């Protein structure tokens, strides 16, 4: 059964799906410049010196489709080197009747509108990330709904898909809109125009929270003059004025400089804070806030970061029924299984590896698996094959390595690591072959 995550309205008719943790780099209707201090100085200078371009001419659309550049969306190239050579050369190589002209730097909202003037949906790049925009969404308010993965499967509790319901009807066609990039494990359905009013690092009430956590958090709490509240494995002060938060911040910095190990986070009561606060207290991990006169709903992806496919679900007559992000898409599930296996599963277990392989860079030529007495021991023993018995018997010539690190050296080993205890392999001209254990 679908779950209700919240509501969203789209008075402009243009929906934007975006990782709202990245909204500090979203320019709205302002020039798309990176502010000083938000990145290393050389990155700021390079980003702010970039330019935007349009592909023009009788065959502009054909050229745009043929150009294989990530910065090109529709007929436009965004955030490119100012000389234009990269895009000009790419268009010339297509051999069609089109050229490139430089245009005034386009704020991110202007990019949404320009791209949607040509297509009903588009990926919208902004400072190395990208969102997905869709035109023709009813004003609303509309329900934001989600469906979980199989409750009996390994991904129970995670979202399979989340969507904005636009109309009732039977889905006859699903049209891919592109992929939305997630870097902070959260997403937001928002009206593209209303989002220009989003407040980042600018608390509406002038107040802040300040949280800390980590190995020495208890000792930090014993030293600060005011005991912060505790929740979710962190300690925090809430509703601090700017003067109070500055004093607490300086105290924490001094304690960390003094050798205590912990992390801390300043949280202004901006729109990002408000929606996160609602998300953390919601069974659905979602929260709705009003920005620019329009409600917007954010939620945790439950899959972490990645690029997730977005679809327009249409009725047989072309009516837009849903705008849907497929969080549990097959490629996402495969990636998650791989991640879990590498970092928490069998490939995270340790092997005893000869220093000839681990340190001298020799290829693996012989390996065997014995019964492991410890949970984190895979049982694999890995050698270059030219070690003497005396060398192998000296523990100083052995290195503990996770199996995943061995795969960086030789990906062919992965299929062997599924073999049971007692297996042994030797490298031959055609690859690894099983051999009797001596």
From TrEMBL:
List the protein's name: Immunity protein Imm33 domain-containing protein
Residues covered by the Immunity protein Imm33 domain: 352-431
């Amino acid at each position: 059964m679908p779950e209700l995550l919240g509501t969203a309205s789209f008075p402009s008719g243009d929906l934007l799906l975006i990782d709202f943790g990245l909204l500090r780099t979203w320019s709205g209707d302002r020039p798309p410049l990176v502010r000083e201090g938000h990145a290393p100085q050389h990155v700021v200078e390079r980003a702010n010196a970039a330019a935007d371009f349009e592909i023009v001419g009788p065959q502009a659309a054909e050229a745009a489709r043929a150009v294989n550049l990530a910065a090109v969306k529709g007929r436009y190239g965004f955030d490119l080197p100012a000389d234009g050579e990269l895009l000009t050369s790419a268009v010339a190589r297509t051999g069609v009747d089109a050229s490139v002209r430089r245009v005034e730097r386009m704020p991110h909202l202007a990019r949404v509108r320009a791209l949607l003037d040509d297509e009903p949906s588009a990926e919208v790049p902004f400072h190395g990330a990208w969102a997905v925009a869709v035109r023709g969404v009813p004003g609303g308010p509309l329900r934001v709904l989600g469906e979980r993965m199989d409750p009996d499967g390994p991904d129970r509790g995670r979202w399979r898909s989340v969507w904005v319901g636009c109309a009732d009807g039977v889905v006859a066609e699903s049209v891919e809109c592109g992929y939305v990039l997630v870097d902070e494990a959260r997403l937001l359905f928002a009206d593209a125009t209303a989002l220009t009013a989003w407040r980042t690092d600018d608390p509406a009430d002038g107040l802040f929270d300040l949280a800390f956590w980590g190995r020495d958090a208890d000792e930090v709490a014993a030293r600060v003059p005011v005991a912060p509240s505790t929740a979710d494995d962190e300690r925090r002060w809430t509703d601090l004025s700017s003067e109070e938060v500055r004093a607490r911040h300086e105290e924490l910095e001094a304690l960390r400089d003094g050798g205590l190990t912990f992390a801390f986070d300043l949280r202004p009561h901006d729109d990002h804070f408000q929606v996160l606060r609602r998300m953390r207290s919601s069974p659905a991990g979602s929260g709705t806030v009003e920005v620019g006169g329009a409600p917007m709903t954010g939620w945790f992806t439950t899959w972490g970061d990645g690029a997730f496919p977005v679809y327009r679900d249409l009725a047989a007559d072309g009516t837009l029924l849903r705008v849907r992000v497929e969080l549990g898409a097959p490629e996402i599930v495969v990636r998650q299984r791989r991640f879990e296996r590498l970092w928490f599963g069998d490939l995270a277990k340790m092997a005893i590896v000869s220093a000839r392989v681990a340190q001298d860079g020799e290829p693996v030529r012989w390996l065997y698996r014995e019964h492991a007495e410890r949970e984190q021991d895979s049982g694999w023993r890995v050698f270059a094959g030219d070690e003497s018995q005396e060398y192998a018997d000296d523990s100083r010539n052995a290195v503990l390595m996770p199996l995943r690190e061995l795969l960086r050296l030789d990906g062919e080993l992965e299929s062997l690591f599924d073999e049971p205890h007692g297996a042994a392999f030797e490298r031959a001209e055609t690859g690894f072959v099983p051999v009797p254990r001596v």
